[in-house]
UniProtKB/TrEMBL annotation:
<keyword id="KW-1133">Transmembrane helix</keyword>
<dbReference type="InterPro" id="IPR029044">
    <property type="entry name" value="Nucleotide-diphossugar_trans"/>
</dbReference>
<feature type="transmembrane region" description="Helical">
    <location>
        <begin position="275"/>
        <end position="294"/>
    </location>
</feature>
<dbReference type="InterPro" id="IPR001173">
    <property type="entry name" value="Glyco_trans_2-like"/>
</dbReference>
<protein>
    <submittedName>
        <fullName>Glycosyltransferase</fullName>
    </submittedName>
</protein>
<keyword id="KW-0472">Membrane</keyword>
<keyword id="KW-0812">Transmembrane</keyword>
<dbReference type="Pfam" id="PF00535">
    <property type="entry name" value="Glycos_transf_2"/>
</dbReference>
<feature type="domain" description="Glycosyltransferase 2-like">
    <location>
        <begin position="10"/>
        <end position="166"/>
    </location>
</feature>
Amino acid sequence: MQNRNNPLVSVAIVTYNHEKFITECLDSVLSQDYNNVEIVISDDNSTDNTVAIINNFIKNRKTNISIKIITSNINEGVTANTNKAHFNCKGKYIAWLGGDDLMLPGKIRKQVEILESNSDCNIVFHNLDVFDSESGKTLFLFSNLKRSNYQKKDLIKLGCINGACSNMVRRSATPPHGFYKYLPVAADWLYWIETIGNGTAIYINEVLGKYRRHSNNVTLKTNNISQADIDHLNTCNYLIKNSIKYFNEIRFRQSQIIFSLRNKMNYLECLKYSLSIRINLKALIALIVYYLTFTKYKFK
């Protein structure tokens, strides 16, 4: 199925209770102007009609594209479900997509062209239209990046600058363990870091996908510390152990993560802890303002 000029791309789609969205998601893949594609869907024991809708789609849609669905009898969680998709992909490249997200025209072709032309590039990502599921209105664009080329140290220091459903990766560069299983919800940041390795990530400054915001988003921001927050902190711990040469970048990101938790934990202690890890301007200003206003003003 692969050839030099038109390599196979695996579109890995992870689903859980996406009955309202999965048909539109699949149609957005089939509408691409790149035909050497396989679709690998991994469903995490959805309690709605997601699986039935997918099976009906496979039965009734006339397409030469292979569509494979992997199901489970138990709910295994985000990372385990994502790994099932990962390890069933056969393409030279993997394009990641949530069952509630959408590809826009030209996405796959443009990403393949960059990967084929840059042998040291292991990740290609692009901007995303983050939209409200109910109204369909754009809430904001995911990125405001100015550069096009990034290295491992950048992905560590800057965090998840590449929205999950914007990524296409070189499969041969991905870690042998896939997504780290001890990060049950938010293992993607580490996956991108390990995939980029000694290569590069290239950013396309163009909106080529749509990320849907709805009440069931796994990483939706809450007022309490989430498993995703814990996973990001544990990623820092993992990196300190396994990528010590990037110690300064890791500590910078760790400090930023702690600062971002200031309204989920003790505000003052978060500011102090963030600054104890690494001096950063945001936390320093927040601390000064907090004291100058006699603890009345807190940065949102």
